[in-house]
Amino acid sequence: MADLSIRDVSFSYGETQILKDVSLHLKDQELVSLLGESGGGKTTLFHVIAGVLRPDRGQVLLNGQDITGESGHVSYMLQKDLLLPYRTIIDNVCLPLLLAGMKKKEARAKAAPNFADFGLAGTELQYPHQLSGGMRQRAALLRTYMFSLSREGSPVAALLDEPFSALDTLTRQEMHRWYLGMMEKIRLSTLFITHDIDEAILLSDRICLLTGRPGTISEEIVIERPKSKRDGFAVTEEFLEYKKRILKGLKRT
Amino acid sequence: MKAKKSGGNSLFSVTAILLILLVWQIVCSAGLVSPYLLPSPVDVVKAFISDLPLLIQNARITLIEAFVGLGLGIVIGFVFAMMMDRFEPLYKAFYPLIVLTQTIPTVAIAPLLVLWFGYEMTPKVLLIILATFFPIAVSMLDGFRSADRDTIRLLESMGASGWQIFRHVKFPGALPQFFASLRISVSYAIVTAVVAEWLGGFGGLGVYMTRVRKSFSFDKMFAVIFLISALSLLLMKLVEVIQKACMPWTKTQ
Q1: Is A75 close to B172, i.e. CB distance below 8 A?
Q2: What dihedral do alpha carbons A228, A232, A238, A240 form, nearest 10°?
Q3: Are residues A3 and A31 located together in one domain of the fold?
Q4: Do B253 and A129 touch (CB under 8 A)?
Q5: pLDDT tens-place string over residues B58-86
Q6: A119 and A237 assigned to the same domain
Q7: What value, to the nearest 5°, has the Cα angle with vertex A79 and ends A213 and A31?
Q8: Which residues of B touch A75 (CB under 8 A)?
Q9: Looking at chain A, which residue has its C-alpha nearest residue B246?
Q10: CB contact (8 A) between residue A52 and residue B157
Q11: Of A42, A145, A44, which Cα lies nearest the Cα of A92?
């Protein structure tokens, strides 16, 4: 059970306050999107949760444990895949296990069965530059997933910061479909950061709007439709209603 | 495509070399230059063959000096780069000093080293260390310091230690720079060994060179010059082969 909660987090860079009393709760196996305009503090919040930045005030709790300012508890994935160019895909994917002290052979054995599910079968011994952008993002996601496996007994949450925004439209749509199916399977608690409203509605259980300067959570929207029934969701009346509501919420500030 | 192109390039350069040799031979055969001042290519080849056992014997000594010096230069350069990367004050303290050592002409301190350490191998090895550790240290340091910030952060978020980040990100990332500098350093090592031997020693190509110069055997002089550049080229090629073996991911690029 991975349960991530952010309580009244505030953060400033020097004189400029970026985040003000941001609170957010991610339940186990839930996918919550954090939606907001660029430069609105999304990535700062992301770094705070990842433990790279320490907030001025507030706490980050994982399964009730205070992890504020500590790294090594949540794994994240960015727009850039950050695969190491000199490691094969399987060794890239294994990296979190190796860092946790597992033997190479053991780590590979643990990672290998996931390749088919992630649509990466046959790429194990290839190098990142031999893969397409979509494939590399899948590999990066598999690496994120392996990190959650490296902490058996203390499940982790994953942070995804615009993971698909560098891909072309068709690949992105394909990735969305794949991702929804994948999440049904691996049930990773995920905080998904994006500025793409459609993406947020399509993938999330809940959407939090981060608005204003300094940024704060102004609204929370629950997407009622079950994730298994999201095929063709994007062209429904229901979808448009959500979109209108979000646009209104983002404009208000 | 690429192989074909480089094959074409070497065809041009080989032709150019053959042309120069031909002109040289003609100039000598026609008696335009006194054979004492400029032996013909054929004379040089003859001298090379007749003195081959002696050349090999001396080359062995020079190569041993070069390898020992280069090996130590690499180790010291590597350790310096690692320490300077790890500890900022060391970087600030030693970087200017290392640059300074490079402004001292090798030829100028060689006699001092001979004076202090005698005619044996020590002064030669020391001189080679001085000449080679700089390019190694500087290139590796640049490699370490140019490691991608986002990648380091990602590994930190996975709980990687400083040493793990060095091993998985900084070190492999610096390999291309390391090999580029190693290619330069091997030829530095050979040339420096020869220069050091000029100033005193019991054997080696530099000593051989001094002897044949004193006996005005310019054909042998040319023979040893060609041998030295051939050795340098061979070693540079060897570095290339080692580089390819150490960096298998570049093969598929």
Answers
A1: no
A2: 130
A3: yes
A4: yes
A5: 999 999 999 999 999 999 999 999 999 98
A6: no
A7: 70
A8: 157-158
A9: A86
A10: yes
A11: A145
